[in-house]
Design a protein that fits this description.
The structure holds two protein chains of two kinds. Chain A is mainly β. Chain A has strands spanning about 5, 10-15, 20-25, 30-35, 45-50, 55, 65-70, 75-80, 90-95, 100-105, 110-114. In chain A, strands 2, 4, 5, 6, 9, 10 and 11 form a seven-stranded mixed β-sheet that branches. In chain A, strands 1-3-8-7 form a four-stranded antiparallel β-sheet, with no helix packed on it. In chain A, β9 and β10 form a beta hairpin. Chain A is globular. Chain B is mainly β. In chain B, β6 (about 55-60) and β7 form a beta hairpin. Classes of the chains: A mainly beta, B mainly beta.
Chain lengths: ~110, ~110
């Protein structure tokens, strides 16, 4: 499968713990996006990278959240001191320079905070 | 910022019937409108999209229409099949940016055999 890959697919953690998710975009896709999806809602934009530069962050991304894309390829999203309200599906997407509009999504990481 | 409303939230049709899902957006500068299909536990998959310089686009049984004046766009699925059952999301690319998709809340489509 040459699509966007996310790991792990599921993560269960206790409140207060730190968690890290990984996203591998489609090869040669310059842009990488993180979205959050809660039950019964559409995905909500969190942040995006163009190559290794993080260019925009939503106000949904509190200071407990940090995202990196150190070499312009894969990205990580870390949540520190998790809260029950962080429970959601975290989706990653990527797009190519030739047509930035078209975003291809991964299957997501489902986080459950107990 | 952009706001996207989607209706209905659930839709049940008989196999072979047509299904229509409607969305409205608020930002008149939005210029790209994709539709995603998401099956349970799977990734959102782009099924069709439309840009603001056209009014209609069709791909086999799926079509999308866009009315820029009224700021609404619709997904039409004809000759529905059970495998069309999924959650469908509309989205708009926020005006003034070329990165942020704003999604509707989704429509759960059930096609009964």
């Amino acid at each position: 499968d040459t699509g966007v890959s996310q790991n792990p697919r599921h993560k269960i953690t206790k409140r207060g713990q730190n968690v890290t998710f990984r996203c591998d975009p489609i090869s040669e896709h310059n842009r990488l996006y993180w979205y959050r999806q809660t039950l019964g809602q559409g995905p909500e934009f969190l942040t995006y990278f163009q190559n290794e530069a993080q260019l925009e962050k939503s106000r949904l991304l509190s200071d407990r959240f940090s995202a990196e894309r150190p070499k312009g390829s894969f990205s990580t999203l870390e949540i520190q001191r998790t809260e029950q309200g962080d429970s959601a599906m975290y989706l990653c997407a990527s797009s190519f320079l030739a047509d930035w509009n078209i975003q291809y999504f991964g299957a997501g990481t489902r986080l459950s905070v107990l | 910022g952009e706001n996207v409303e989607q209706h209905p939230s659930t839709l049940s049709v008989q196999e072979g019937d047509s299904a229509v899902i409607k969305c409205t957006y608020s930002d008149s500068a939005s210029n790209y409108f994709p539709w995603y299909k998401q099956e349970l536990g799977k990734r959102p998959q782009l099924i069709i999209d439309i840009r603001s310089n056209v009014g209609e686009k069709k791909d086999q049984r799926i079509a999308v229409t866009l009315n820029k004046t009224a700021k609404h766009f619709s997904l039409h699925i004809t000759e529905t099949q059970p495998e069309d059952s999924a959650v469908y999301f509309c989205a708009a690319l926020s005006g003034g940016s070329n990165y942020k998709l704003t999604f509707g809340k989704g429509t759960l489509l059930t096609v009964n055999p």
